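== Sequence entry ==
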Amino acid sequence: MKEVSISVSISGNTYPIKVKPEDQQNVTQAAQLINDKIKALKEVYGISDKRDLLAMCALQLATQYIQLENKTNSSDAQLARQLTQMDILISSQLR
């Protein structure tokens, strides 16, 4: 698939990148999310060092990702148990 060139701005720096057309909106939204988190961290903690702000932003986003992944894995396991129970119930009724 052909890629498109876009520029995203993160913490005042512009980065030219190539993405698939269908990923362009997600990348732009991700850059905006990072900028919003950096702004909030700067306001709450009074930190002005870009490296510290980016590190704290990365930590927050990674933590949120792990929490979501754990929740998804838990939901998947619960769904698998329910499907197994349904399969057993249906199989027993078909015999």
Q: What stands out?
A: The chain has one domain: 4-94. Residues 4 and 21 are 6 Å apart (CA to CA).
